[in-house]
Specification:
The protein starts with a helix and ends with a helix. Helix 1 crosses helix 4 and helix 2 packs antiparallel against helix 4. 66% of the residues lie in helices and 0% in strands. The protein has 99 residues and is mostly helical.
Length: 99
Amino acid sequence: MKMKTPLATAVLLGAAVLAHAQVDQVKVWAAACANCHGTNGHAQPGMEALAGKDKDELLQKLLDFKSGRKPATVMHQLSKGYSDDELRALAAYFAAQKK
């Protein structure tokens, strides 16, 4: 019986570490956006703030940049570096930030 407890603990710890790593990865991606859109999407005047925006609208903009449907100076190149799922995660992250 004692053998199961350390194994269960190890499995739960591994799952927690994996979940934490996934959350941190989205924050790493979002940090790249801070150059123009501010920390956690709180932009300086003159730039578009992303914090608290509608998730679906953010995702659509990102996908439009990626496909070339929406003109841009750098966003079309930056968005091509992410999969659609990664863009979806970024949109959800910024939407969850307080304005």
